[in-house]
Amino acid sequence: MPHVSKRNPNTRNYFEGSATVTSSRATSGHNFAETLPTEMSVNIFSKLDIESLCCAAVTCKLWNDIIEKSDHLWRDHCLTVRAVCQREVDGDRGGGLSWKVTLVRNYRKCCVKRKWLSGRYSVINSAEEIPDKIMCPLDAETWGEILEAELER
Q1: Closest Cα partner for 43 from 28, 51, 53?
Q2: What is the maximum alpha-carbon separation in the chain?
Q3: Distance of alpha carbon 2 from alpha carbon 146, whole angstroms
Q4: pLDDT, tens digit, for every residue of 102-120?
Q5: Cα separation of 137 and 132, whole Å?
Q6: How distant is the alpha carbon of residue 107 from its chain centre?
Q7: Long-range contacts from 18-23, C-beta under 8 angstroms, 24+ separation
Q8: Where is the F-box domain (predicted)?
Q9: Average pLDDT over residues 128-138
Q10: Structural contact between residues 53 and 77, judged by C-beta atoms closer than 8 angstroms
Q11: Which residue among 17, 20, 53, 112 is least crowded, i.e. fewest CB within 10 A of its CB?
Q12: What are 11-70's pLDDT values in tens digits?
């Protein structure tokens, strides 16, 4: 049976195991982005990884508007990609592309390049052994970096 709080008659506490879950009738049915200032919503979204941020962007129109209008959210992730694909990211940013577009253009390439440079594919003996699902086009300079790393191993 729910316990009615003495402090606020509109708040009920529900006990689940050892945790207490508080629900307020005043805010039920609303999402945090409707009640919090945009800056706080952006702060919450900034804690998400890239995949979760993309999922959040398609959750509802309000979340999409906040995420799409906040270039800052994409900047931090893009700088992580830049650690591996500096030339590509700097070229896209120099060309005037937004942080989000730059991230989308280079994220997959970064993942593939990072795996190659870490030696994940050092045991591959022929082109047929390269996994198709994870590959994406890489430029000649990137292949040069990968070749140098393989020769050093």
Answers
A1: 53
A2: 71
A3: 61
A4: 998 888 888 888 888 888 8
A5: 11
A6: 10
A7: none
A8: 30-77
A9: 75
A10: yes
A11: 17
A12: 444 444 444 444 444 445 678 989 899 999 999 999 999 889 989 999 999 999 999 989
**Total Cβ atoms within 10 A of residue 81:** 23
111 closest CA partner among 81, 142, 146: 81
Cβ 13 vs Cβ 3: under 8 Å: yes
Residue by residue, DSSP assigns 41-103 as HHHHHTTS-HHHHHHHHTT-HHHHHHHHH-HHHHHHHHHHHHTT-HHHHHHHHHTT--HHHHH
**5 pLDDT higher than 50:** no
pTM over 0.70: no
Helix (H) or strand (E) holding 20: strand 19-24
pLDDT exceeds 80 at position 93: yes
